Amino acid sequence: MPRLTRRAALVLPLAAPFAARAQGGWRPTQAIRIIVPAAPGGTADISARLLAPFLQQHYGQNCVVENRSGAGGVIGTAEVVRATPDGHTLLLGNIGPQAIGLSLFRNLPYRQQDLLPVCGTVRGPNVLVVHPSVPANSVPELVAHLKANPGKLSYGSPGVGQSPHLTGVWFNQATGTEAIHVPFRGAGPAAMELVAGNIQYMWDNLTSGITQIRAGRVRALAVSSADRNHQLPDIPAARETMPELARFDVNTWFGIFLPAAAPRPVAESLNAAMKAWHETDEVKARWREMGGVSLYGTLEQYAAFVTAEVEKWGAVIRKEGLQLEVG
């Protein structure tokens, strides 16, 4: 089990006064684990490590983050599905394994009904970034470069079935281009390989990729959302750049899930705690800094949001005839 960060450890002596304010009828009786089905460094990991100290302080119990990357988020998700449904094991899920993967993979070891949506953390666009060596300063220039070199350039993603992967697939299909997909065990490792020049481009979560953009290590060409993002006002939405991309609109999202059999009071308590978390100045500032938007909702609102995403990506995947095996 990973060691507690110094920050998490420091809040323990302060936990007792805050524990009395824990909402709902349920309170944890042992350490809380937040399973992140991705490697450290990506938005899922950032969300979890921002949430963990708050829950620890709120409930007066240790809260640790454990990264379980691999298979596009399937390994970590499956661990939570199998966990005791008592509120002590949470999943920091995302659009990949909790929406896209349900239609993309033939042999998933879980179903949508095996998880209970609790509350979202953050949503935001993906951003198309290229290594500085790529001779493209705009989306049309990248498309022209890809068409001149079919199947020769490679693009990375945090895993097969994750939003950046499917965003790349949709982009290539819409523009009639070919490239080699290289999956990694999370957004952090993919970004490192892009900076190193071992892959040429990727659709990265803006919330995690903006640091590399600001440092000038990669060049941003477009965001995947329908509109521009306030953190990169000079970077166009992809659909602005070419007629072929007029319908292009993708937002990546993240949030907390429980095993489906968890009692309603557990979910209600965690949702109330996360509402208070979303309202803190620290979280509001972090989302603004990352170019993200708060994804707080009630249990019913978040469940409806997740179902709509499952249906949206299911339609896209069926239309394209995409089917993969969990490997």
UniProtKB/TrEMBL annotation:
<feature type="signal peptide">
    <location>
        <begin position="1"/>
        <end position="22"/>
    </location>
</feature>
<dbReference type="Pfam" id="PF03401">
    <property type="entry name" value="TctC"/>
</dbReference>
<comment type="similarity">
    <text>Belongs to the UPF0065 (bug) family.</text>
</comment>
<dbReference type="InterPro" id="IPR005064">
    <property type="entry name" value="BUG"/>
</dbReference>
<keyword id="KW-0732">Signal</keyword>
<protein>
    <submittedName>
        <fullName>C4-dicarboxylate ABC transporter</fullName>
    </submittedName>
</protein>
<dbReference type="InterPro" id="IPR042100">
    <property type="entry name" value="Bug_dom1"/>
</dbReference>
